[in-house]
Amino acid sequence: MNSTSTSTNKFEQLADLKQKSIIDASVNEFANNGFKNASVNKIVEEAGISKGSLFNYFKSKNLLFDHIYQIALREVKTYLAKVRDESKNDDFFTRFSKIINSGIAFINKHPRLAKIYFRLLNSDDSPHGKVIVQKLHSEAIRYLTQFVETGIERNELRSELNPTTVAFLMESTLNRILQVHYLEIIDTKSELSKIDNNWIDEIVDTLKMGLSK
Amino acid sequence: MNSTSTSTNKFEQLADLKQKSIIDASVNEFANNGFKNASVNKIVEEAGISKGSLFNYFKSKNLLFDHIYQIALREVKTYLAKVRDESKNDDFFTRFSKIINSGIAFINKHPRLAKIYFRLLNSDDSPHGKVIVQKLHSEAIRYLTQFVETGIERNELRSELNPTTVAFLMESTLNRILQVHYLEIIDTKSELSKIDNNWIDEIVDTLKMGLSK
DNA sequence: TTAAATAATGACCACCCGGTCATTATTGTT
DNA sequence: AACAATAATGACCGGGTGGTCATTATTTAA
Asked: A202, B156: Cβ pair inside 8 Å?
């Protein structure tokens, strides 16, 4: 059996290669068209299986999508956990830079998953879309609030700061940077982007030093 | 004739009331379903006209959508121009607060247009979507860069700051605040939201003072 | 009042959708 | 080799799509 309930046991029992080709085709189609506009017919064609088989593995388009986006979220979380653990001994601002760079690396390595992720965040044509978005947002805030609290404890940040407010600012900035980078690499298919290390450092530094005289 | 080329002259020559009902129905349908999933059949039904007539006024669904989103953008720009002019004598941070509040007021007054606006920003199922998004982003940055430069000239901001970087930070924050507010009022149908004046002031103040000790 | 010009209509078109299920092909068991 | 169990198939279903156009209704002009 499977840990999730999105796919039937029949899908898990398939040969790995077949599973991969189905997932690959689905990721492609959902990434390029969102949920509603994605075509099951195109997926089965690209995967090289019959429609009846697909609906034997997944009871509906909805459940197929659930399976796919859970893959995307699992991958994102792996990245975030990794950067959190690997940057334990860095100061707050270095850590923040590393989080941003980790996000950029993720987009470079998994552009199609990133596409699904952003579609999930930003449109409501996906099943459970609203619920997922709110869960993601609050998880992100919680994740970042930890960093802020650690930073305050370590005397790297002003103690008067409201951690939630700072986390909100960080999340806004992170989100926008990744979105800009994502739009750029989706268009140009190149990993070169104006979002380079200098640009990131300048943003983080501006946040660090503040705007006022 | 008309200043834009999205609608035929036939649409402009219609009685105002008829025009309004068509626009109203279209705004509804596009706001609730995005471009591709919006149904022309539903629009003509709600507007109380025949399908043939609609395609006589607008040559395609594409051009109808163009007409609608241009209305949305025009309305947004009116708001932004108003707050820019009305806050000329305020200091930088007060102005930024006012911009945010103006955005919130817009969402409260025109939730359906806001929905179209966010859909435009965040999904690519609309015609010319990518181009529009990039134009909007650079326009926003330009608009905010003006504020920053004025702030530096008036000695309200540190002179070492890179205006574009600050504008980017402002735009990220503004965007996220409005998005959160938008999601809240869409769900609750109430104008009450955790995005109140205190919350906004705290965010602006954090940006102002910076994070470091 | 009548005829010509214009506007409105909705049945119809080809196409695509998600999902079903009787039929066929493959596999496993004796 | 023969049979049963299981897996794969794709024609088919009802329904929806954007768009068209011959027909009908309305307005305008003489």
From this structure: no
Q: What is the mean pLDDT of chain B?
A: 91
Q: Which tokens hold the place of B3?
A: 């200043």
Nearest-5° Cα angle at B25, B20 to B27: 90
Among B183, B60, B178, B35, which Cα is nearest to B120's?
A: B35
CATH T-level fold of A9-209: Tetracycline Repressor; domain 2 (1.10.357)
**Cα–Cα separations (whole angstroms), residue A65 to A69, B36, B211:** 6, 19, 40
Q: Is the distance between the Cβ of A8 and the closest atom of strand C smaller than 7 Å?
A: no
Cα B158 to Cα B148: distance, rounded to the nearest angstrom: 10
d(CA A187, CA B164): 23
Tens digit of each residue's pLDDT (9 = 90 or more) over B43-87: 999 999 999 999 999 999 999 999 999 999 999 999 999 999 999
| Protein CA A6 to sugar C1' D5 (Å) | 26
Q: How many Cβ atoms sit within 10 Å of the Cβ of residue B158?
A: 16
> What is the ipTM for the molecules in this complex?
0.89
Cβ of A13 near strand C (distance < 7 A) = no
Contact B120, B132 (CB under 8 A): yes
**How many angstroms separate the CA atoms of A75 and A69, rounded?**
10
> Among A45-59, A120-134, B79-93, B133-147, whose mean pLDDT is lowest?
A120-134
Q: Please give the full DSSP string across A2-33, using - where no structure is assigned.
A: -SSSSS-HHHHTS-HHHHHHHHHHHHHHHHHH
Lowest-pLDDT range of A26-30, A112-116, B8-12, B163-167: B8-12
Domain boundaries, chain B: 9-209
Which residue in this structure is represented by tokens 């593995």?
Answer: A57
- How far does the CA of residue B18 sit from the closest CA of chain A (Å)? 30
Mean pLDDT check: name the lowest of A89-98, A180-189, B135-144: A180-189
Compute CA distances A209 → A73, A150, A192, B143, B158, whole Å.
33, 19, 28, 23, 10
Hey, are the CB atoms on A206 and B37 less than 8 Å from each other? no
Which residues are CB-contacts of A188 (< 8 A; sequence separation ≥ 6)?
Answer: none
pLDDT band at A3 (very low <50, low <70, confident <90, very high): very low
The contacts of residue B37 (CB under 8 Å, 6+ apart) are A36, A37, A125, B125
Instruction: With CB atoms and an 8 Å threshold, state whether A173 touches B173.
Output: yes
pLDDT single digits (tens) A60-89: 999 999 999 999 999 999 999 999 999 999
